[in-house]
Amino acid sequence: MKVKFILPALTEATSPLFRPVKYSLFPPLGLATLAGYLKDDDQASIHDEHVERLCLDDASNSGERPDVVVIQAYITSAQRAYEIADHYREGGTYVCLGGLHVTSLPDEAAAHADSIFLGPGEDTWPQFLEDYRQGHPRPRYTSTVRTLDGLPKIRRDLIRRHLYLVPNSIVVSRGCPHHCDFCYKDAFFTGGRGYYTQTVDDALAEIERLPGRHLYFLDDHLFGNRRFAATLFDGMQGMGRLWQAAATVNTILQPGLLEKAAAAGLRSLFIGFETLDTTNLADHAKTQNLDRDYTTAIRRVRDAGVMINGSFVFGMDQDDTSVFERTVEWGVSQGLETSTYHILTPYPSTGLYQRMQREGRLLHSRWNEYDTRHTVFQPARMTPDELEQGYWQSYRQFYTWRNLFTAAATKPTWTGRGRHLTYAAGWKKFEGLWNAVIRLKQISQMRPMLEQVLSGLGRIQPNSGETIEQPLSTQLPIVAEQET
Of 10, 50, 148, 288, which residue is most buried, by most CB within 10 angstroms? Predict the structure, then answer.
């Protein structure tokens, strides 16, 4: 059996003129995981349209068309996913559609596929393969059994590592224990557990298989199960890894866990602050942030030698046009290395979407604009245009050279200030350089620089505050082969 796995892209990710670096960070790990369930004599290939042109004429390219095409659809790439699916179905290929958007709007997706998959695929995909081989695949598969036990080895051999800045992405859990009303999680994991992990031994074995030094945990909430996380971090000590991940404010404030992560190599953390307004937090069920001291959390992360990417959402009902400047000024004063801003977006099947629909506040259903950069609903205290303009202005303001230097000055050492400036400016002040290396397919050559910045520009900074010099050769082992 010949199976072709496809991750469709947005138009801007395939433009010959400009390729944002965020689309060249991580390979499609979910598709590589599904490929692990195939038999040894099956043929498989993975095609990520973000980093390479997708060839739809398989007969002229490889001599034969695939038996099965598997397409992963996100909301903003749904239209492109349907176009690809329709093309292959017209040619007689069996088409499978899955992913967040398919789970949210299954009837819409079903019109473009032979089989659709709702929810995680660890139980439904193996069942489909068995059904397909026996000649009676079902039109719809719905996940109910939630476990990562017995997960096969991810087919990383199918990933073209040199096209990504962070090929060593990894996921050791599924879902999140929280229930924010704007998050897709509850809709995607309906009908079963919404948060579960691998065994620690399996997670450590997967880490051991990864070459090089740098890792990025793509888990929605790596720290969500305290016992699992603590044991994992203990097992990672001595591996010599540098890694990045995401956590919530409440887990950062728990004593001991952050320190274990830092000792195991954590160097950068994505934190969903979302809003500085407690009413907004309550309105959107962001209970893990309520009554938490953001400043104390930031100080704990900083004392552990870890950088912060702060995430913020604009357009909640308590937000007016003053929210943008206030949020930027707060982030700069707190010394956040980077900030990621989003326009509140009501994804289909979420609690937020249902509320907006009841209130008649949805402006349209052009899914390609549900990308957290366009306003797709009527805000309560500003116009849609004011929300979009404030969003873009926040990015421009936070990443001015003046604010970058101001934020860096909050660090107590020159090394810390230098790392801050190098990391923050590297993402937002050199987009032309990123575009050039992506077009030349040389983005992997930037990985040693990323590792050097994460490691502290040639230094290790223990919790005691002591600074120890290390030879650069011990920090940046050469990786022969070749996204963030």
Answer: 50
